[in-house]
Design brief:
19 strands; alpha/beta; 473 residues; Alkaline Phosphatase, subunit A; eight-stranded mixed sheet; disordered N terminus
Amino acid sequence: MKYILSVFSIIVTIVLLSPFASLYAVEEIRPDDRPNVLLIMVDDLRDFGGAFTKDVVKTPNLDRLRTRGTTFERAYVQYPVCNPSRSSMMTGLRAEQTGIVGNDTRLREKLPDIVTMPQLFKEGGWQSHAFGKLFHLGGGKNPEARQAWMDTGKSWHTAQAFEATTAGKKLLSGRNVTDGALPWCQWGAAAGSDDDQPDGQIAVATVAKINELGDTPWFIGCGFMKPHDPFIAPQKYFDMYPMDSLKIWSDPADVSPVRKEAVGFGDYGKAFTNFSDREWRELFRAYCAGTSFMDAQLGRVLDSLDKNNLWDKTLVIFVGDHGYHTGERNWWNKNTLFERSCRAPLVIAAPGVKGGQTSRSLVEFVDLYPTIADFCGLKVPNKVAGVSLRSVLQSPESRVKEAAFTLITRGTKLYGQSVRTDRWRLTIWSDDQVQLFDHDVDPEELQDVARDYPEIVKALAAQLAGERLDLKN
């Protein structure tokens, strides 16, 4: 890691040369016309496609939001782990630029003077408040450290984290499916009500703040914790998914092998190798239950927009912090450069923009900051790696970029960078090993075809080299 981070120390200077770096100067919006912003961020929620679809998991409120907004079917994170992804999203910078590649580094330790997305609004006259997980929730039980991780004071006027009540911590059923080898790999059907769990409390607090602020322009971050581990939700959400009703993913026998650092690595891989169908099915059921529990809390927040007649003056962004494997390539987690980890849900409902739209344009999460600022008439004070998606919202078939880029690191020296185009995903590792997948015929990325398409590898490698910040130099 020291090798990689030593290069990161000069990244902020290098980014000024990025072809995607740009400033956004937009028309002034009168104070009385300033829209609200509701940023709903969800933890570990995978995308709408593939083996896990809306026909499997029940998300009526997310479906309801999609009828009001634009669903981006190909939206990609810049680092598929919580803290790096959220730091990237909130600054409009790639992980190569922030220098944050793990969950152990607070944003302000790397970029003390960066103006974050909510900070821009706070300093621009909006009320800025966070409930739940927007930035990564580090700091343990120390209240002062926790507030520092949430960036209270700089990004938010107030920020609040939540914990399950005594009733909510009582499990009616459940177990650790690894016999304790992986402490986080726990599922449980909990006693108590929705409000005995953090996500229920987050919804209540978000709604209360919306009601309290009235006509005052606001930027509210609503950061739901589920379906992130531990896979715990109230009992009624498990009841929605009878065990024998669920199918689990199974890799075909001829799936192409990949290097050990790509997927299946470490203690996680060892544990998953020993899973029976029962363990996969229990985890998948709990993941579905957690997703539906989160969706019910989303509904409470959307109800408040209905009740207060706020849809015409509120920009709503629903986004997952990264994707998630639910068994693909024998993996239950994120932190890979496969599609299931790099792609995540994104729905944007904007005042004056037609609802019920779907876009297959390639977009990146670094695009959210300039997009939100653009809609609200604010100028982004820092050079960012993203571009505004306003044109795509107005015409979903339009495009703002031809590729999306994602990074992961492995240990102190090895890292991988991936480029996703309409048809291809190419991943290049820092020791020059490559993986190539053809999405026209292989959307689950089961067959590595790098040897079959050397010219494609060469062309995409050049494209990746032109847009990425090469950590080897």
